[in-house]
TrEMBL record:
The keyword Signal does not apply. Keywords: ATP-binding, DNA-binding, Nucleotide-binding, Transcription, Transcription regulation. This is Acetoin dehydrogenase operon transcriptional activator AcoR. InterPro entries: AAA+_ATPase (IPR003593), AAA_lid_NorR (IPR058031), GAF (IPR003018), GAF-like_dom_sf (IPR029016), Homeodomain-like_sf (IPR009057), HTH_Fis (IPR002197), P-loop_NTPase (IPR027417), PAS-like_dom_sf (IPR035965). Pfam families: AAA_lid_14 (PF25601), GAF (PF01590), HTH_8 (PF02954), Sigma54_activat (PF00158). GO terms for biological process: regulation of DNA-templated transcription. Residues 335-565 form the Sigma-54 factor interaction domain. GO terms for molecular function: ATP binding; sequence-specific DNA binding. It comes from Clostridium magnum DSM 2767.
Length: 644
């Protein structure tokens, strides 16, 4: 080593004197010397510059986690070299010294060199050195004697290794420094191992911190059990749901908390876990109904614990309602009308929205019964809760009860093993809208009456009554009083539902609304198309007002949409009176119910009929349909119409 110290000293002198570098000098050192010369670092110095000292307190605050992790490693390394004249330093990613441990004699030498906490120790400030050069090259570095660019460091040997985060970014540097006479190649290996240990410990610390943050911030309650079913950990959400102190629950017996849950199946079973099952927690004289998941933790096929996650049933139902669209989108301001009676209905709707009373909405199909129901919900204090719409006529007879009131696991053949909430449970905290209430079977009507009387439900196969906080709005296009006379509808249920009554107005009795409705529909279609901006002509509106609209507003909207897309002019218009009459006939069913024909099918049939009537003459067809030839050819191609 003495020969190398002499050699590098001579090489350094030669470089400082005339700028030549001995080819035997290590490439990393030679390149560093050149950089230092370019930085205009004084080779006759090498001490720390007081102008580049940061606040020790600030650096410690900025790097608190790195220092706390590195300090035990530094102490461990120092315990190995203690008394041999070495000091262990920790620098941050910028090269500022943050921590030092060392023998007294070497610490005094460091003070004289201004090699102290807060000092910047980079190449451009103090010249070639293990810390600065290792950070620049991003690799372990050892500097001995005159390899240091500053002459005041020639009596030193330093070994440094960068410390990285999990993404490979430099977060700091660990260094071991002593007298140059104590230089040994093993020193660099020791420092490199220490850096790797700090990296692993940092990654573990960050991982644990993230896990703890995640554990306490997830929206589900979580309880971790060991193999003996002792409660080892509980997150903040679990404490909130169960309304218990942390110090209390960790002392509790999980089998008493969940006395209807079979833990032995998980502990002794083969890959058994429970997903999305209902389970009750019994705690402090109360029952908390939850949806839980219970998963075993295994090491080499041995169960070492169980992780239980859970949510209150009501929270799960709210989430389900939100995800599958149990919400109301319409408000009273969305009701387009100039009719005074309709305006009175809106005023009345706003008044009853502030109450909790049941509402019965009666009227023809297409007159906006659900629109009014949604508006009442959105104007009420329940607007943040779910709005669950149920079409009673669309549910198969044998499934009505389970759909409305839910069922427990195994309640009947084909039932889900976890059970299933009904629409009333899903609407808890909000509004349930029972459309076509007149179609409910009589036996279900009696059960609905019981629910309305006590605001409680019992699932099929269940014994537990669930309290509801719910508003019921019903709608029908039938005359329920006539249905009562025919014994198709319970009279007591009718009066229970008919606390607040609204009768919608057919479009035929509010034709002054046709103008504003048509213009509103066209504005929506213009916005959807993006490329077109069509207007509505007076002749078109007059023609629409001549029709009696058995399908009401719904029928009007569909006709306007059809005419909008079939019109090639800037004005929306229908083809001719014969076409309108044909369409009207198709739109009208025996019971005055709307039977809308898909627009594209209607357009295709219209073109086919015109081609047939005009014997395939394109010019005649374009005149008959009032469209251009290019439009006609495009639609013939679109619908694959044979014109031969």
């Amino acid at each position: 080593m003495k020969n190398y110290v002499d050699f590098i000293s001579d090489a350094w002198n030669e470089f400082i004197k005339d700028g030549r570098i001995n080819p035997e000098v290590r490439n990393e050192i030679a390149e560093s010397w050149r950089r230092c010369k370019g930085y205009k670092v004084d080779p006759m110095d090498g001490k720390g510059n007081f102008n580049y000292r940061a606040s020790e307190k600030l650096k410690i605050e900025e790097n608190a986690q790195l220092i706390s992790v590195a300090r035990p490693v530094m102490e461990n390394v120092y315990s190995i070299v203690e008394g041999s004249g070495f000091a262990i330093m920790l620098a941050d990613k910028d090269g500022y010294i943050m921590d030092i441990i060392g023998d007294d004699d070497i610490m005094r030498m460091a003070d004289e060199l201004n090699f102290v906490k807060g000092q910047l120790w980079t190449e451009n400030i103090v010249g070639t050195n293990a810390i600065g050069t290792a950070l620049f090259l991003d690799k372990p570095m050892q500097t001995i004697g005159a390899e240091h660019y500053g002459i005041n460091q020639h009596g030193w040997t330093c070994s440094a290794s960068p410390i990285h985060d999990e993404d490979g970014n430099i977060i700091g540097c660990i260094n071991m420094s002593g007298k140059s006479s104590s230089a040994h190649s093993h020193t660099l290996g020791m420092v490199t191992s220490a850096a790797q240990l700090i990296q692993k410990q940092m990654a573990l610390t960050i991982s644990n911190k993230l896990m703890n943050i995640t554990f306490d911030s997830i929206c589900e309650g979580m309880i971790v059990l060991d193999e003996k079913l002792n409660i080892k950990r509980v997150n903040d959400r679990a404490i909130e749901i169960l309304e218990v102190m942390h110090k209390e629950i960790v002392k509790m017996n999980i089998k008493q908390l969940m006395n209807n849950f079979n833990f032995s199946e998980i502990i002794n079973g083969d890959n058994i876990s429970y997903n999305n099952i209902e389970c009750d927690f019994y705690i402090n004289m109360k029952r908390v109904k939850c949806i839980i998941n219970a998963v075993p933790m295994k090491v080499t096929d041995k169960v070492i614990g169980i992780v239980i996650t859970f949510r209150e049933v009501q929270d799960v139902h709210k989430l389900v309602s939100k995800v599958i669209g149990y919400n109301a989108s319409y408000r009273f301001q969305d009701i387009i009308t100039e009719n005074e009676r309709m305006k009175d209905i809106i005023k009345f709707g706003k008044k009853i929205a502030k109450s909790h009373s049941n509402v019965l909405i009666e009227g023809q199909s297409g007159t906006g019964k659900e629109l009014i129901a949604q508006s009442i919900h959105n104007y009420s204090k329940r607007k943040e809760g779910p709005f669950v719409a149920v079409n009673c006529a669309s549910i198969p007879r044998e499934l009505v009860e389970s759909e409305l009131f839910g069922y427990e696991k195994g309640a009947f053949t084909g039932a889900s093993k976890e059970g299933h909430p009904g629409k009333f449970e899903l609407a808890n905290g909000g509004t349930i809208f029972l459309d076509e209430i007149g179609e409910l079977p009589l036996d279900i009507q009696s059960k609905l009456l019981r629910v309305l009387d006590n605001n409680k439900i019992i699932r099929i196969g269940g014994t537990y009554e669930k309290q509801l906080n719910i508003r019921v709005i019903c709608a029908t296009n039938r005359d329920l009083k006539e249905e009562i006379k025919r014994k198709n509808f319970r009279e007591d249920l009718y009066y229970r539902l008919n606390v607040m009554s609204i009768k919608t107005i057919p479009l035929n009795n509010r034709k002054e609304d046709i103008d504003v409705l048509v213009k509103h529909f066209v504005e929506i279609l213009n916005a959807k198309s993006g490329e077109q901006h069509k207007k509505v002509g007076k002749n078109y509106l007059d023609k629409l007002k001549q029709y009696n609209w058995p399908g009401n507003v719904r029928e009007l909207r569909n006709v306007v949409e059809r005419d909008y897309y079939l019109s090639d002019e800037d004005f929306v218009s229908s083809y001719d009176e014969d076409t309108m009459i044909t369409i009207k006939d198709k739109l009208t069913s025996d019971e005055n119910e709307l039977n809308i024909i898909p627009m594209q099918r209607l357009e295709k049939e219209t073109i086919q009929n015109a081609l047939k009537a005009c014997e395939g003459n394109i010019m005649k067809v374009t005149k008959y349909l009032n469209i251009s030839r290019s439009t006609l050819y495009r639609k013939i191609k679109k619908y694959n119409i044979n014109n031969k």
